[in-house]
Amino acid sequence: MAHPSSQRAALGPSPNMPPAMAEIKSQAVDKVLEEMNRMPLFMTNLDETDGEGGQNDALEALRALAYEGTRAEIAENFRQQGNDCARTKQWTDAKEFYDKALAALRGPQNNPDPDAEGPGVIEVELDEAEEARKEKAIEEACHVNRALCNLERKNYRSCIQDCAQTLRLNPSNVKAFYRSGTACLALDKLPEAADACNRGLVLDPSNAPLAALKSKIAARKTYIESVEKARKERETRIAAERVTLQLALKSRNILSRSTDTPPDLEDAEIKLENPLDPSSTLTFPVILLYPTHAQSDFVKAFPEKEKLDEHLDYIFPLPWDKKHEYTTEGVEAYMETSAGGLIKVGKKMSLGKVLGSGKPEVVDGLATISVVPKDRAADWIEEFKKRKGKN
């Protein structure tokens, strides 16, 4: 079997490689990739240097080309790049290109050098009217397309501003009306959304997106109106219930007041069985205090017709009452009066009658009853009087 080297010898001498390829062949793979990344066609990241701190001439040449030509040509170049990004839904990049296009339109006009000489120089005369027409068309397109970018990025106010600028340039731009209407709808600016939509439909009555937008605006308006109607009805009902409750308390001679620091009763509250009927049964939240033992129980709903002993029967015995001092027969109950004194609460008297005596008061929607063992009642009353500064 012939040796590979003898086969190559039989084929004759191989041609010399071009100098550039021979140089690459002698380089490491990493070095080759680094050099390729410096070439605009093969770049995977933006490289700014050229060897030892210099400029990347190829990249700078491409950048310079982006700003070669008249304002309209430069702006059109950026606009097309923006359109390419928009087609692939790269909204941030597309917006930046439209920004550059609009900035180019505000920049100086690159007129041909009048002193240029030589066979390669082509004389160009700018038609100012034609250039102005091109610039206006590009400006309109950039604003309406940037409006789309802002709409997709949920920058609704910026979208509306771009649409307004578009319509200043061309009051018949249907896309601007559609995008402005969509942004206004997103902000719940329904009158403005409807106005933009209707103006667009006047220009293009068969425009399907505008027709769909009009339906969305109408549906949103109906929903908001229904929510507002329900809110007003709820507020009216709450106000009526509040007035009815005050009337029920007044008609029963029950005193009540509010403080600046009401307790958190969660969902417990004074309420009527029928919120709009002052004669229906009243129910109160009641806290039972055991002051001699610093304990308490909370009754969320104590109807006015029920008696204290009916509740004590199911509350007693108390889990912490080791001496069994608290029995329905072995305790007395008291309520503080509006004047700062005490009244004894009959355990077989309905809560409504106790409160209706006009002496105790319901504070912050809560009735408070102190329950003490009979053999400790006298001492507790004396302590209460001392605390209140009374003899």
UniProtKB/TrEMBL annotation:
CDD domains: CTWD_TTC4 (cd21381)
InterPro entries the record matches: Csn1/TTC4_wheel, TPR-like_helical_dom_sf, TPR_rpt
GO terms assigned for molecular function: Hsp70 protein binding; Hsp90 protein binding
Keywords: Repeat, TPR repeat
Occurrences of domain Cns1/TTC4 wheel (ranges): 275-384
One BP annotation, GO: protein folding
Repeat recorded as keyword: yes
Region (Disordered): 1-20
Domain of life: Eukaryota
SMART domains associated with the record: TPR
GO cellular component terms, semicolon-separated: cytosol; nucleus
Family from the record: Belongs to the TTC4 family.
Protein name: TPR repeat protein-like protein
Organism: Ampelomyces quisqualis (Powdery mildew agent)
Lineage: Eukaryota, Fungi, Dikarya, Ascomycota, Pezizomycotina
